[in-house]
Amino acid sequence: MKLRLAWRIARRELRAGLRGFRVLLICLILGVAAIAAVTSVRESISLGLAREGAALLGGDAEMTFTYRFATQEERDWMGGRSVAVSEIADFRSMLSRKDERALTQVKAVDAAYPLIGTVGLRPDMPLAAALTGRDGVPGIVLDPMLSDRLGLTLGETVRLGDVAFVVMAELTREPDGASAGFTLGPRSIVAREALRNTALLSPGSLFDAAYRLKLAPQTDLDALKSRAEAEVAEGGFRWRDSRNGAPGVNRFVERLSSFLVLVGLAGLAVGGVGVSSAVRAYLDRKIASIATLKTLGADRATILMIYLLQVGVLTLLAIVGGLVLGALIPLIAAPFLQGILPVPMDTTVHAGPLFEAALYGLLSSAIFVLWPLALTEKIRPAALYRDAQFGLKGLPRWPYLLTVFVLIAVLVSAAVLFSDSARLVLWAGAGLALSFGALVLAGRGMAALARRLARLKALRGILPLRLALGSVGGPGGETISVVLSLGLGLTVLSAIGQIDTNLRGAIGRDLPDAAPSYYVVDIQKDQIDGVRNRLAEDPGVTRFETAPMLRGIITRINGQDAQTVAGPHWVLRGDRGITYAAQKPDNAEVTEGVWWPEGYEGPPQISFAADEAAEMGLKLGDEMTVNILGRDITGTITSLRNVDFSSAGMGFVLTMNPAALSGAPHTHIATIYATPEAETPLIRDLARAYPNITTIRVRDAIDRVSSILKSIAAATTLGAMATLVTGAVVLVGAAAAGEDRRRFEAAILKTLGASRNRILASFALRSLLLGAAAGLVAFGAGAIAAWAVIHFVMEAEFTLSLLSALWIVVGGISVTLITSLFFSWRAMLVRPARVLRSADG
Question: Which UniProt keywords apply (predicted)?
Fold first, then answer.
């Protein structure tokens, strides 16, 4: 009976229109749409990667060996368990044309490549014909960027190392390009046979040999992987299969989308403030109606049910609208996204992401709506005659507060469940809660300070300022809602701005000062002395370092699988750089244990990076097995040392005694610190003397990383701007909700003789105070959040950006000022007599 009666009354009140609920609808639609769009794009990419996994990988499975080709026995094993096998060598090298050189990522392929998909060439021709070349010179196909960089035309001759190739075509489509991950140079493709017995692919050179397997239908990939790890090279290879054809892309999309979802949740929190304010403003106007219903015998449960049904219906409508918009955005943006993303997308409507967004919207709405609705039971019939103008006050009873906390816990749990990083969600949730609390305290503190300042004798002659302070500190004002709504949006934007500024500064400004000018790799053993002599004789070379260079996969720790012991640490993902040294390097600081004596030839010993050892739970005396060129080497950790990776110089996680690696083929690596004037002739001389070596300009690598960061920053800034737009909507709603109060206040002041300019000045000063408070708190909270990310996640030095801070504060003041003055001006246009007669009636 109560429910039927409550619904009847609620339905009649809804017929009066949506006045007062527009902010609720807009905030929820924006928040839900943002999350639905981000999660839908994530799902589209994930499903596209899963569907096209074999095409992206270039086969149903791939086994990759580091710095060596598979033995005949290993090839026989792969051939016996697959329909077809393709062998590919992937490495970096210098492509040269006369005295011009450019870094390229070379793919040397066999006749079976590609097992799945097709290569796109311009002019159109079969890949086999392009790689055959002409007049006995093998062919090469190049990324158009390489052709532009070196000014190449079809038919010209170029060199990789000391091998000549004729340019036959430009590469327009590489079917397995997305699986390659981050590369420092554009792609070029040559025939594997053309590089046979060259120094570019000699034992110990820096290359990966990948074997793509085309498998029979219904092959059990897990079983095949287990057999390979047990029967091939004692697991000394990297395995990938079609279930995760581009793991780097997938991991990047997951992390970025998780972050954007968190930004979206922050937007929902901002919108929640608007929802709460809208409901509170609506209920303030209904105080007389609620008091009348109570006078006629309605109990508090019925009253709560009436307005809960009204808000519930509108919330569901807003969520449905947000879901429709969030589902349409990816479909509309699909052509643009597919043009800039190197991965396929399954551009359909996905139920899972829409459910996730709906759940977030429903929970956040319930959290922010329940609070003002619960206050309706505090309204007494006496409100018909007094105190109605002050609106809803106080705290809800404890059952409502407990319900709110439970809903918050459910929302956080849902975010953890849907995200791939529980730690990120929990830290972000804690940061958002602290920011929320800081803004509430700032609002209350601002109100208390305003009340105190308004009573100062020194301000008695400044009427607009006293009026502004009285309004900020008075009861029933908009101080907390304005500071909260604007402050949360600015906090997210401030944090992203500080993170972006610090990352750009560290990579684009600070790193080049500390980093070497060039890396030189693939230096053969018989070339290292000549390279050292050339560098030592050059007055423009301020410093250089050289070291033996091997790569290996850490497979076991203390006899157990390494990832089982240490988890998915970055050191265990793929192969790592390894070196050997007879003496402790001058710049190495041993923190625990002792370095092996010079000339030591006993069981293998390992010096490991101290920070990484602590993260992996390693200690002195632990045994570690490293697979190098198919051979397992087990050593004991006898020392830990500090390794500084921040300078981009030479740093190895793992160093062994020379005798442990004496039988392994390897090359050397060098880092060169030189003046800009010395770089060009130095690199040209090295290239002429040793055509097989590869030189990597650090500035080019930094520019590639900076461009990626720029794209990430653009995506996150758009997310933050969406949050700020929601905050602006909330501000508009708060200002609109307070328009009646401003109109009444202006009418009283006009009647008492205040001029229009003074009244507008008081409104403007009120906005300046609230905007400044929100901006300052947002700047502080955003800076703390950015410091935590830079310090704990990025492990870099944090520098406060004052320019970013200035924009945040100025932005907060400007948005608040413009919004408030617009509605204040409207309030000023109404005649005082009309307002006062309405209030009296």
Answer: Cell membrane, Membrane, Transmembrane, Transmembrane helix
